[in-house]
Specification:
The structure is a single chain. With about 280 residues, the chain is an all-beta fold. It has one domain: 7 Propeller (Methylamine Dehydrogenase, Chain H), CATH 2.130.10.10. It is about 0% helix and about 40% strand. It contains no helices and 23 strands. The strands form 5 sheets. Strands 1, 2, 3, 4 and 5 form a 5-stranded mixed beta sheet that branches. Strands 6, 7, 8, 9 and 10 form a 5-stranded antiparallel beta sheet that branches. It is globular.
Length: about 280
């Protein structure tokens, strides 16, 4: 059965990211992460979307991730400033979701009915603190560990981490080349404390990962090799000319690429603008 999937993160008021599919497809499913911050309470809500746009819960929903989301009581910035918290593989047979509050990644098999079954051993360690975003390139999963949960202070630096996806969905380390500056390509690359990396955007058809540093005001690209390792290019700052004055913080959030041209779009959320990059 052919499936079309829409993925969302629910973080208070169910506000989050989504990818869109044709509403007329009778085998279309929508997944929403509850992000409940209590131990073993995080879950994925699954719905079948009808041709008129209405949603019907999938039998067995919600499906527990065996982890925790995040609790944030602030009013401005916080650990919800991220994207791609839930993704699927290209075959739409596996679903991956962050457990930001318990530093793990939940992996599920997706049945033809839209129901989710945990992969053996799920959830798996995320390789850092506060995982907030996921990307897939081939059989490699890339995780952004933000270390940005104010309610759970951490001395661990934020990082980008890669791990191998086995055919059965199990996540395993690729090698021990983590933060090894003597090597060109690495499986874990740590970044500045407090920079708040928020997305692992894989450019379709390219061996390229783009990341944004929400509180750091930077964009950075990483070349990927066939082993699932990363090589970091120099980061670039958001241009001061596109912000109203020197007191407006330069915060990027939300990355997407043009489907037919080598162009990247980045949200300048404090300036109400979209940055366009080649």
């Amino acid at each position: 059965m052919k499936k079309r999937l829409t993925l969302c993160l629910a973080a208070i008021c169910f506000a989050g990211s989504a990818s869109f599919a044709h509403a007329s497809d009778p085998s279309e499913y929508v997944y929403v992460e509850s992000n409940i911050g209590k131990p073993n309470a995080n879950s994925i809500f699954a719905f079948k979307r009808q041709s008129d746009g209405s949603l019907i819960p999938v039998s067995g929903s919600p499906f527990l991730t065996s982890g925790a989301g995040v609790i944030y009581t602030g009013t401005d910035l916080g650990p919800f400033d991220s994207d791609q918290e839930i993704i699927t593989n290209a075959q739409q047979t596996l679903l991956f979701a962050v457990n930001a509050g318990s530093n793990s990644i939940a992996v599920f098999h997706i049945s033809d009915s839209g129901a989710l079954t945990p992969v053996d051993g799920s959830p798996f360690p995320s390789g850092g603190d506060d995982p907030v975003s996921l990307g897939i390139y081939g059989d490699t999963l890339f995780v952004v560990n933000q270390s940005g949960d104010f309610a759970k202070p951490s001395s661990v630096l934020p990082n980008y981490t890669s791990m191998h996806i086995e055919p059965d969905g199990i996540l395993v380390p690729i090698n021990n080349h983590s933060n090894d500056t003597l090597r060109e390509f690495q499986t874990t690359i740590s970044v500045a404390a407090g920079s708040s990396p928020s997305q692992a955007y894989i450019v379709p058809g390219k061996n390229l990962l783009i990341g944004d540093y929400f509180l750091g005001g930077l964009l950075q690209s990483f070349h990927l090799n066939d082993m699932g390792e990363m090589f970091a290019q120099p980061a670039i700052a958001l241009p001061a000319s596109e912000f109203n004055d020197t007191t407006t913080p330069r915060f990027p959030l939300g990355l997407w690429s043009n489907p037919v041209a080598p162009v990247l779009y980045a949200g300048y959320v404090t300036a109400n603008k979209i940055g366009v990059y080649r």
